[in-house]
Specification:
The complex is a heterodimer of chains A (135) and B (387).
Chain A: E1 2-9, H1 10-14, H2 27-46, E2 50-55, E3 62-64, E4 73-75, E5 85-93, H3 96-106, E6 121-125
Antiparallel strand pairs in A: 1-5, 1-6, 2-5, 3-4
Chain B: H1 7-12, H2 14-23, H3 28-45, H4 54-77, H5 94-105, H6 112-123, H7 128-134, H8 139-153, H9 164-176, H10 185-199, H11 203-216, H12 219-222, H13 242-256, H14 263-276, H15 285-299, H16 302-316, H17 318-325, H18 335-345, H19 349-362, H20 366-380
Helix pairs in contact in B: 2-3, 2-4, 2-5, 3-4, 5-6, 5-10, 6-8, 6-9, 7-8, 9-10, 9-11, 10-11, 11-13, 11-14, 13-14, 14-15, 15-16, 16-17, 17-18, 18-19, 19-20
The chains are: A alpha+beta (135), B mainly alpha (387).
């Protein structure tokens, strides 16, 4: 088994596709999209593949250390939302092929007119535990 | 204070108890649930009232739980009771049951992850919560994985013949892959393999048991205090567990004497040769290469070919190792790490440093990545010695 992180970016629904931002969808279209996401997570729990997932607010800042005795420096909020992470989901699957299949399915979440939005999802393997037998 | 229940002892009774229920006609999935409930009750009531016959106690309680569940189900479905209240009596061949249970839980229709989970629960007697924690998934997900696995094998006759090799693959996975949480998966894999070895006389079962014991013996030396990996050549061999090594060697020798070589015996033979070397420099690499040749013949596995190239590099020098590496599929995990190692041995530090960095970027786990990054850093900073 291997764990994968699926990252959803804000840009994908508005920029790289011929798809309006979500606030310009009809309320029913928004609901249908959210329902699809919830159903997807529920289905993966049922197949024994769901690990976790959360949505993230777009408001955020950059933070860094600024020396002993000084408060951390913050920068932001971000002017551009295009590269922001909108949410994540972690899955535990038998193969890379299965991870790609599931990411493809999540990317088919409905948008305006009920059409799949075909957003790009970022798929990243986790670093696992080291095996005991290596020689 | 009442003594706590001996968890390992109780769980060692699970296959036998489950076997009895299934032989009495209980459906496997329902029987397995009933046994889990009986275990919970044992943990609760045994400290105050330890039974004289723990297995008999578990059979009685599990059977009652099973009947209760069946009655509830039957009432719900308004159906006649399918199972008689009084269990049929008669002797039960418990070792056969144990073996059949291993076969069922490792059935080829299950994915490896499902077989692992089902084996740990139905044979090992671990709770779903413990198994979920060991594989870092939510309990609800693991519960579904296990119940799907039970559904998958529900149509299979309990006494249908199985293949020991599929069982060994599952036990190998339990030993080799998993996170360390509450449950010591390596120790659990060894316990389950011992139990299997007691139920079936098979040289490869013994081979796998020996392999596990010999690797488990190195456990204390395998990681540094900060959690980083210590490669075999740099391990403090005084920290190896000599009792486990001698048991592993004995088990292996008895298996090899049967003259039915298999991949686990060959792997264990290699581990035994490492265990036998007082220092890394005294390792009998020539014999290790011979065992790898056997393993290549037995499995044809590219991973084995990769490890063989390492051994050839030690036995005949890095150039020979690199030559052996030339015929290995470069997409095999750790290929670049081996390449880096052999180039360094050959004196080409620049190439080795570049390859170590590349290998780090390709590593499948953080401990290996950190180790490889340190190797690259060591070669890139000639003034500063380091591991």
């Amino acid at each position: 088994m291997a764990k994968y992180l699926m990252l959803k970016h804000y840009r994908s629904t508005s920029k790289s596709l011929d798809c309006a931002p979500m606030d310009q969808w009809t309320p029913d279209e928004v609901s249908a999209h959210m329902q699809y996401m919830n159903d997807f997570a529920a289905k993966l729990t049922e197949t024994g593949e769901f690990v976790g997932g959360q949505a993230l607010a777009p408001e955020g800042v950059w933070v860094r250390y600024d020396g002993e005795g000084r408060p951390p420096v913050t920068d932001g909020p971000f002017a551009e939302t295009k590269d922001l992470i909108a949410g994540w989901m972690v899955i535990d699957v038998d193969s890379y092929e299965r991870a790609v299949e599931l990411a493809g399915e999540l990317s088919a979440a409905p948008g305006p007119g009920g059409e799949p939005i075909r957003e790009w999802l970022e798929l990243r393997p986790f670093l696992g535990a080291p095996p005991t037998i290596t020689e | 204070m009442t003594p706590p229940v001996d968890d390992v002892l109780v769980r060692s009774l699970v296959p036998g108890v489950l076997g009895v229920l299934v032989r009495r006609g209980a459906d496997f999935a329902a029987a397995e649930d009933a046994v889990q409930e009986a275990l919970v009750e044992a943990v609760r009531s045994w400290p105050a009232a330890p039974p004289r016959d723990p297995k008999g106690w578990l059979v009685t309680v599990a059977w009652r739980k099973f009947l209760d569940a069946t009655r509830a189900e039957t009432t719900r479905r308004r159906r006649e009771e399918a199972v008689a209240d009084e269990p049929p009596s008669g002797p039960v061949p418990s070792t056969d049951d144990t073996l059949q249970l291993y076969f069922l839980c490792a059935h080829p229709s299950l994915t490896p992850a499902s077989a692992v989970a089902l084996t740990l629960r139905a044979v090992g007697g671990l709770t779903t919560r413990q198994i979920a924690a060991a594989y870092l998934v939510p309990e609800a997900t693991m519960a579904q994985r296990i119940s799907r696995a039970k559904r998958t094998v529900s149509g299979i006759r309990f006494d249908s013949p199985g293949d020991v090799a599929t069982v060994l693959r599952v036990l190998y996975l339990v030993f080799n892959e998993g996170y360390s949480g509450d449950v010591d998966l390596a120790a659990e894999a060894i316990r389950l393999t011992r139990q299997l070895a007691a139920a079936v006389d098979h040289p490869e079962v013994a081979g796998l048991l020996a392999l596990m014991l010999l690797h488990h013996a190195r456990r204390a030396a395998r990681t540094a205090d900060d959690g980083s990996l210590v490669p075999l050549a740099e391990q403090d061999r005084r920290r190896w567990d000599t009792a486990l090594i001698s048991e592993g060697v004995q088990v292996l020798q008895a298996a090899l004497a049967r003259d039915r070589l298999g991949e686990y015996q060959a792997q264990a033979a290699i581990a035994a040769l490492h265990a036998d070397a007082p220092t890394a420099a005294e390792t009998d690499w020539v014999q290790i290469v011979e065992w790898y040749d056997e393993l290549v013949r037995l499995t044809g596995s590219p991973v084995v070919r990769l490890n063989r190239a390492v051994a050839v590099g030690e036995a005949d020098g890095p150039r020979a190792g690199l030559a052996a590496l030339a015929s290995v599929d470069a997409s095999v995990p750790r290929f670049v790490a081996v390449q880096a190692y052999l180039h360094e041995k050959d004196g080409d530090r620049t190439t080795a440093a570049r390859l170590y960095a590349e290998a780090a970027a390709r590593a499948g786990n953080a401990a290996e990545r950190d180790h490889l990054t340190r190797q690259a850093a060591r070669l890139n900073s000639p003034g500063r010695p380091g591991r």
